[in-house]
Each structure stands twice: as structure tokens, then as C-alpha cells.
Automatic annotation (TrEMBL):
SMART domains: AAA (SM00382). PANTHER family: PROTEIN TRIGALACTOSYLDIACYLGLYCEROL 3, CHLOROPLASTIC. This is ABC transporter ATP-binding protein. PROSITE patterns: ABC_TRANSPORTER_1, ABC_TRANSPORTER_2. InterPro entries: AAA+_ATPase (IPR003593), ABC_transporter-like_ATP-bd (IPR003439), ABC_transporter-like_CS (IPR017871), P-loop_NTPase (IPR027417). GO terms for molecular function: ATP binding. Keywords: ATP-binding, Nucleotide-binding, Transport. The lineage of its organism: Bacteria, Pseudomonadati, Pseudomonadota, Alphaproteobacteria, Hyphomicrobiales. The keyword ATP-binding applies. Involved in beta-(1-->2)glucan export. Transmembrane domains (TMD) form a pore in the inner membrane and the ATP-binding domain (NBD) is responsible for energy generation. Residues 10-247 form the ABC transporter domain.
Length: 256
């Protein structure tokens, strides 16, 4: 069991998720602390996206208990669920913008789902979010196919921030970006976390991101959290996967 954290934003206990006979998460425990950027790593196919989707209620669990903002979403009624959902934003893997909608429509999509606002106000929110992620308002009427990979990630982040969330889930936000683009994106996430007081749950394979952006790292393996702590804790671990990951060739290039 992880050390108890006072006032965790996300509290996961003994969670098991299974698809058919395949058990992906197996009695997993995890706490995410208020205001931190938690980097979530582990081998490909280990279940990082599955855990993310389980926390936000898109994947049913076989057993276990999850609270977000102190609310058990399984026990909550529809109104209470929606109230919690409004407090988080999600950037899914590959950016996942709606390809048939413009940047404006993509960013306004979650706002329309939860709030009834005039088009003028929706446009003001959209422009504010674009500026927040470092994009010019004149991209508003472009379609995703007319954007670079880095711009798509930024628009997806703007959409995740559209409802002024306290918590954001980022699933491999820098995948597919070149190292400079990825570095810029990490810096943006760090700046937003500091200025907006966000809590960030970030699935990543990117050692640079773990090193520069994350306050804490949790590692998934065999359906459980096999390590959680600082980068120094990860580097000191004797676990074979951690040794390979945090001391491999790529790690030496990043961390010197
Ligand atoms: N809806 C589903 N139905 C059946 N199996 C699924 C489903 N979703 C995920 N899985 C399986 O669960 C396992 C974990 O997948 P997941 O995408 O969470 O891995 P991951 O750790 O995020 O991997 P990667 O780092 O490659 O993105 C995989 O074997 C995947 O095939």
C-alpha cells in the first residue's frame, strides 16, 4: 500500500480491471496529490491508458474503489458525477481532436456540454484558451488536418482546459513531437500547472518529460504500482524494469 497522502485529488485502492480473461490491473493502489505533476510510466501495454480511463469512468472495474476530489463516482448520482467531471480535463492519446470540427468547435465542445452560454462568450473562452497554450486566435477556423502535430497537441490541451479544470489527464501528450516541440510542450504544462495550480496526471514514455516536468513518478507493472517517488528514487531502484528504463542508453543521454 502507498503511504497515505492527506487530501489526495485521486485516490485509487485495490482496483482490478479485466477484459475477458485478461487481467490488466490487479489490485492497484495509487494516490495523486493536489498540485503535483505525476508522471505515469510502464511498459507498453501495461495498462496506463486503461487506468486513466478507469479513473474517469470510461472503463468499468471488476473491483476496488476510486475517489476523485473525495467523491466515489460509482456511488454518486448523475448530478454529482457531472459536477466532478466538470472539474477535470482530458487530453487523450494522439491528441484526438474531432477531425470534422474546427479548432473553435473542438475547444467549445466540452463547454457546450456543461454550460449554456452565448456564442460571444464561447468565443471569448476559446480565444483565451488558445492564447493560454501559445496559439494565435487566427487558427480558430482551421480544421485539425490543417495543423502541425505540435499545434494539434496545443489545441487538445486548450480543449482540456476549456472548463477551467483543477485536474488534467494527459495521455502521452508529447508522443509524435520532435524533441524541441516536446520540450516546449513540457514547459507549457509546467507553466500552466504553476500559474493555474493544476494537478496533472500524465501518462508518458518520454524521459525528458519525466525529468523536466514531473514532480513525482509512478511506475506500472504486472497490474500494480511497482514504484512511486522522485526521479532519484527511480534511479536508485533495483527493480529490473526500472534499472533498464532509468539507466538505459536513452536515460544516460537525457540525464547525463
Ligand atoms: N477495451 C478493451 N478491450 C480489451 N482489451 C483492452 C481494452 N482496452 C485496453 N485493452 C488491453 O489492455 C492492455 C493495456 O492497454 P493500455 O492501452 O492501457 O496500455 P498502455 O500501458 O497505455 O500502453 P502504451 O504505452 O503502449 O500506450 C492491452 O493489452 C490492451 O490490448
Amino acid at each position: 500500500m502507498p503511504a497515505e497522502v492527506s487530501d489526495p485529488i485521486i485516490h485509487v485502492r485495490d482496483v482490478t480491471v479485466q477484459f475477458g480473461k485478461t487481467r490488466v490491473l490487479d489490485g492497484l493502489d495509487l494516490d495523486v496529490r493536489r498540485g503535483e505533476i505525476l508522471g505515469f510510466v510502464g511498459p507498453s501495454g501495461a495498462g496506463k491508458s486503461v487506468l486513466t480511463r478507469t479513473i474517469i469512468g470510461l472503463v468499468p472495474k471488476l473491483s476496488g474503489h476510486i475517489e476523485v476530489f473525495g467523491v466515489d463516482l460509482d456511488a454518486a448520482d448523475r448530478a454529482a458525477r457531472r459536477a466532478v467531471e466538470r472539474r477535470w480535463g482530458v487530453l487523450f492519446q494522439q491528441g484526438a481532436l474531432f477531425s470534422s470540427l474546427t479548432v473553435r468547435q473542438n475547444i467549445q465542445f466540452p463547454v457546450r456540454e456543461y454550460l449554456k452560454l452565448s456564442q460571444r462568450l464561447l468565443d471569448e473562452i476559446m480565444v483565451a484558451k488558445l492564447v493560454m497554450v501559445g496559439l494565435r486566435p487566427d487558427v480558430a477556423d482551421r480544421f485539425p488536418s490543417e495543423l502541425s502535430g505540435g499545434m494539434i497537441k496545443r489545441v487538445a490541451l486548450a480543449r482540456a482546459l476549456a472548463l477551467d479544470p483543477e485536474l488534467v489527464f494527459l495521455d502521452e501528450p508529447t508522443s509524435g513531437l520532435d524533441p524541441i516541440g516536446a520540450g516546449d510542450f513540457d514547459e507549457l504544462v509546467r507553466t500552466l500547472q504553476r500559474t493555474l495550480g493544476l494537478t496533472v496526471f500524465m501518462v508518458t514514455h518520454d524521459l525528458d518529460s519525466l525529468y523536466t516536468a514531473c514532480d513525482r513518478i509512478a511506475v506500472l507493472g504486472d497490474g500494480k504500482i511497482i514504484a512511486a517517488g522522485s526521479m532519484a528514487d527511480m534511479q536508485a531502484s533495483e527493480h529490473p524494469w526500472l534499472r533498464q528504463y532509468f539507466h538505459g542508453k536513452r536515460a544516460r543521454a537525457v540525464m547525463g
